[in-house]
Amino acid sequence: MEITLNHTIVPTHDNVASAKFYQNIFGFKFIKEWHVFAVVKVNSTLTLDFMNKDNFSSLHYAFKVSEQQFDEILGRIKAEGIAYGSGPFDVTDEVINSRFGGRGVYFKDPNDHILEILTTDYVLD
Question: Is the pTM of this model over 0.85?
Answer without folding.
Answer: yes
